[in-house]
Amino acid sequence: MRPQRLLGLTVLAASVVACTNSSPSSSAALPETREPTLGPQPTTIAFPTEAMVDLSGRIVFERSHPATNNTAVFVADANGTGIELLFGRGAEMPHWSPDHKTVSVFCCDDGMAAHLIEVSTGAFRELTPPDPALEVHCGPWTADGSELACESFGVDDDSRNGVYTIRASDGKRLRQLTSNPKGDDAPGDFSSDGKLLVFTRFNDDGSALWVARLGTNEPPTQITLSGAVGECFCGTFSPDGSEIAYTSADDGGVYLVRPDGTDLHKVFQDAEGRWAFTPAWSPDGRYILVALSASRQLATHPPTDLYVIRSDGSEPTLVLPGDVYQSHPDWAP
Question: Domain 58-332 is in which class?
Answer without folding.
Answer: mainly beta
